[in-house]
Amino acid sequence: MPLAGIALAPLLVSPLASSPHRSSVATAAARRPRALKRARCSVTAASGEAGELSRATLLWRAAKLPIYSVALVPLTVGSASAYHHAGLFFTKRYFVLLTAAVLVITWLNLSNDVYDSDTGADKNKKESVVSITGSRAMTQNAANISLFLGFAGLFWAFAEARDIRFILLVMSAIFCGYVYQCPPFRLSYQGLGEPLCFAAFGPLATTGFYFSNSNTNISSGMALLPLTKTVIASSVLVGLTTTLILFCSHFHQIDGDLAVGKMSPLVRIGTKAGSRIVSIGILTLYILLAAFGLCRSLPPACIVLCALTLPMGKLVVDYVLKNHEDNTKIFMAKYYCVRLHALFGMALASGLFLARNGILS
């Protein structure tokens, strides 16, 4: 199983300083004029700092390479679940799907920059692709081309697997990405990004990639993989770690989001309550892991290897609790979540692979 790539994602981290934020927005409506004034001052300061960065640094940040672990982990865990259940793994299909998933995430990132530029949310974001290229149209065209090529890879895999569940689930995941950011929906502006993220990358994408390993090349005809409790449990865990990344990405953006009416969860509840939710989310992740182990939804190998990520989980909790009011530091919280997501996904997939081969099964 090609799992080593997941381990590289945590290394691709680059810090970014952003504008200060409000630790509480319980009285946001009453203080809106003052909040807007503060946001403008913060943006001005941030713009001056960003102006000192080289174009290469801005391009590196715009590329968002660590975030591409969200393409790798669902595919690898889904494929490992198929291998664990039936011993099926198709190398060519895996890498075509990996390329397609990366292209779809590229579309997601580029179109997000386009539509945030339209609403003014990224007006002073120097690392936005629209800001770097100076062209909304070019960025939109690149996004559309990425999505088209991603679709080509997905439908090729569908032709190989011939399992309609695969393409329906993956297309549903992509639709979640569309309504998350694209007009006329823009559900992220209503604070619905996290449930959409959980559904898209967890139950939909991870389970869909599991079904992509259905095999038609056997003498008895078509063999469709059954839906198992193992892939369901795995998809829930992948969805939760992915959602933590999105949730933590809001900490340093509260003033900017408030200024354009983007009601993210942290705009609604403030950073102090948000830091507690991160703690609850990490705790829930490991409680679910233990529960899935006790009910034998996951093999012991998964429980042992995933438990080894506890120090990374604790690091996320400690960092967010300590720095949720420090905007220059809290930006890094989402990248610590990326590390947790990648390590946890690697451990989960590796555990499924080992269990299939009789190790810690």
TrEMBL record:
Membrane spanning residue stretches: 94-110, 141-158, 164-180, 192-211, 231-252, 273-292, 333-355
GO biological process: photosynthetic electron transport in photosystem II; phylloquinone biosynthetic process; plastoquinone biosynthetic process; ubiquinone biosynthetic process
Compartments, as annotated in UniProt: Membrane
Taxonomy, superkingdom: Eukaryota
GO molecular function: prenyltransferase activity
Membrane topology note: Multi-pass membrane protein
Keywords, sorted A to Z: Membrane, Signal, Transferase, Transmembrane, Transmembrane helix
GO cellular component term, pick one: membrane
HAMAP family, per the entry: MenA_2
This protein's name: 1,4-dihydroxy-2-naphthoate octaprenyltransferase
Organism, scientific name: Sorghum bicolor
Classification lineage: Eukaryota, Viridiplantae, Streptophyta, Embryophyta, Tracheophyta
